[in-house]
Amino acid sequence: MSTTELPASPEFKANHAELMDGVYRWQRHIYDLTRKYYLLGRDRLISGLDVPVGGSVLELGCGTGRNIILAARRYPDARFYGLDISTEMLETASTAIAREGLVDRVTLTQGDATAFDAKALFGRNGFDRVFVSYSLSMIPGWEKTVSAALAALSPNGSLHIVDFGQQEGLPRWFRALLRGWLKKFHVAPRESLREVLESESRRTGASFRFRTLYRGYAWLAVIGRQR
């Protein structure tokens, strides 16, 4: 990870928010229906959160609220928080959360996952769990999101990530077809994802678990912060 990279300007962040709103202004209405066929490993991530009773969970890039709703059902004693840069996606998520009767347990806000103040946004100093599902492949400066997520963890908290892998065990034609399709939605699988996560784990003295899913179609990682 470069130490000389300049932080994104407010104008850049605003432009990315506008881009995401443009991409998902209409897509958000069919997002969950279509993405279930190729955003693989999300439910495995949720089942592995192992949220403590009364715990707190933050999702970065919460999108339509699909994951946060499933997680809230699975861990009924926990509080959930969602952050997304797209106001269009947050509108869909808010509607879904209200429909599920989860308004009292789920708080959403608009923000940049590469630089956010958990205290200012949510009134919390940290979270027991932070998870990022298929968002790093869409975020410019995604490495900063990893650092920000780790900084937002409570002692003994953990960061859970699932995203596109490098399809290392799949045919080349499949990889080319998938990459071409993803590019239409400004999605780029991060080749250095494992390397960055390992580096951040060493830097923070955290534990690190990594596994490939579906012959490298997806990568799943957990970084556990030590007290």
Automatic annotation (TrEMBL):
Record keywords, A-Z: Methyltransferase, Transferase
GO biological process annotation, one example: methylation
Top-rank taxon: Bacteria
Residue intervals of the Methyltransferase domain: 57-157
CDD domains: AdoMet_MTases
Pfam families given in the database record: Methyltransf_25
Gene Ontology terms for molecular function: methyltransferase activity
Gene3D superfamilies per the UniProt record, alphabetical: Vaccinia Virus protein VP39
Annotated PANTHER family: TRANS-ACONITATE 2-METHYLTRANSFERASE-RELATED
Descriptive protein name: S-adenosylmethionine-diacylgycerolhomoserine-N-methyltransferase
Source lineage: Bacteria, Pseudomonadati, Pseudomonadota, Alphaproteobacteria, Hyphomicrobiales
